């Protein structure tokens, strides 16, 4: 999948034009990433915004030698999602509900609901992936679902490419053994698309 060239990522933290170009180039990919992981359109909108705010805050850490900007951004998004899972778990344990969602206009809500509906089968696959180790799941997500090459996924996760390939192979084998035929077929399609 070809994307427009990225601006110098280190500039997005202080250059509004660079940030706008970066945001426009990657917002759909990040919305898909988030929609595969949450069902609530308000939360999806909030998390997408948080990913880009975190990208602004950490733009100075981006190194072109470590991979493409989208791989780095997926790493930022994974951190935001992990922080959200921790926050959510704390809130549930404490019995607190987060109040006051950011306002989303009707058109945004419709688009987010459509995106969430479009990712329903993928969420079913995610439920099946809960049996994988976190390490295997992380590589599988970045390669099969987010479209990164194994080497880019390895860089985003801070592991060696050979380690990423082994984890990916184990994850695919485990899922093929445990999934229903229809979901296994979806995994096969995703695997072929990422090869």
Report a brief summary of the structure.
By secondary structure, the chain is mainly alpha-helical. The protein is built from 9 helices and no strands.
Indicate the percent of residues in helices. Answer: over 70%
Name given to the CATH architecture of the largest domain? Orthogonal Bundle
Number of helices: 9
Distance between the termini: 13 Å
Estimated radius of gyration: 17 Å
The CATH top-level class label of the largest domain:
Mainly Alpha
The biggest beta sheet is recorded as:
none
Mean pLDDT value: 82
Q: What structural class is derived from the secondary structure elements?
A: mainly alpha
- Structural domain tally: 2
Q: Which regions contain 5 or more consecutive residues with pLDDT less than 50?
A: 1-5, 96-100
Write the layout of secondary structure elements.
Blueprint: H1 16-35, H2 41-58, H3 69-94, H4 106-118, H5 120-129, H6 134-145, H7 150-157, H8 161-178, H9 181-194
Helix pairs in contact: 1-2, 1-3, 2-3, 2-4, 3-7, 6-7, 6-8, 7-8, 8-9
Please explain how this structure is put together.
The protein has nine helices and no strands. It is mostly helical and 195 residues long. The longest helix has 26 residues. The N terminus is likely disordered. Keywords: DNA-binding, Sigma factor, Transcription, Transcription regulation. Belongs to the sigma-70 factor family. ECF subfamily. Pfam families: Sigma70_r2 (PF04542), Sigma70_r4_2 (PF08281). This is Sigma-70 family RNA polymerase sigma factor.
């Amino acid at each position: 999948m070809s994307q427009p060239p990225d601006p110098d990522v280190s500039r997005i933290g202080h250059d509004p034009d660079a940030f706008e170009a970066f945001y426009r180039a990657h917002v759909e990919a990040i919305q898909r990433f988030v929609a595969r992981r949450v069902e609530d359109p308000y939360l999806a909108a909030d998390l997408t915004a948080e990913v880009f705010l975190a990208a602004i805050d950490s733009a100075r850490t981006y190194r072109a030698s470590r991979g493409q900007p989208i791989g780095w951004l997926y790493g930022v998004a994974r951190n935001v999602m992990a922080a959200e899972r921790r926050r959510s778990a704390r809130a549930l344990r404490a019995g607190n509900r987060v109040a006051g969602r950011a306002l989303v206009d009707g058109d945004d809500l419709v688009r987010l609901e459509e995106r969430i509906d479009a990712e329903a089968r993928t969420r079913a696959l995610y439920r099946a992936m809960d049996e994988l180790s976190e390490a295997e799941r992380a590589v599988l997500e970045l390669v099969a679902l987010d479209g990164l090459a194994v080497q880019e996924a390895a860089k985003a996760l801070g592991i060696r490419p050979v380690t990423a390939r082994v984890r990916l192979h184990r994850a695919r084998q485990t899922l093929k053994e445990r999934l229903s035929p229809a979901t296994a077929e979806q995994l096969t399609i995703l695997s072929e698309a990422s090869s």
